[in-house]
What does this fold into?
Amino acid sequence: MLIQTMKRMRKAIVHSLATVLALGLVLITDAEAMRVSPMVSEITTRGAGSSARIEVQNVGSTSLAFETRITRIEFDENGQMIETPSDDEFLVFPPQGVIPVNGRQVVRVQWVGDPELAVSRAYYVGIHQLPVDVEGTASDAAVGAQVQLVYHMKSLLTVAPPGAEPDVRVLSAVPAMVTTAAGPLELTSATTETAAAPAAAPGEVPGVEVELRNTGTRYALMSGADWTFEGKDPQGQDVRVRLTANQINEAVGVGYLAPAGGRRVFRVPTGQAFAEGQPIKLSFSQ
It folds into this structure.
């Protein structure tokens, strides 16, 4: 059973799932105009823990107008993210506002969706800077040659019923050649009990294609633990490769695995070839 490992994984990696997006054109003055914290929040479907507080700070040189938008995030088996507008599942106060220079605004996000939610869900709380001329500088002719930088930041919010836990199973693990931007030499920190892997084409290294399924009621973040692969090399010798959580994060990202039967296929570069047709055992450890 992997439940205890998944509990530790959730605590170890939850903050790395946060995504921060800064979208704009040309920077005029400040390299940073807005900060959002925390970047990750976890709430329950009912009770005192069913709301989160997100602080927006204006660190720019002009007043900051913003609005909030919430989207539910899901992933297909190949890891492609799908976002769906979900503002109706939350009560947000204030939903928009103007923050003075060096000011702060706390945004309260309250779950008002199904209190009997069966499995966990993941959402982005988007804090979107509005291209509003709060200071009235548009009348200045000199501004005509400038371009305003607009920030859009996303804070991860997970909602789970009380007591929800992940339950991850390995469905398959087979040898594969994996394309990696890092290249073969970047994988030398992986530990192996056999000789170095055979030479591979630039950007392509020996690895393992893994299919995982989460039948639990809470999401799992698979880059929160070390992965150990055990099997035979092409010469029939025993081989064992251990990749740290950091290496897994670099190879496949945070490895979000949805609950209630969520499946993902991960192509993991190991730097060590495994024999075709031979079983590969995969285990997780903290």
Observations:
- Residues 1-31, 183-201 have pLDDT under 50 and may be disordered.
- The longest helix spans residues 3-13.
- The first strand starts at residue 34 and ends at 37.
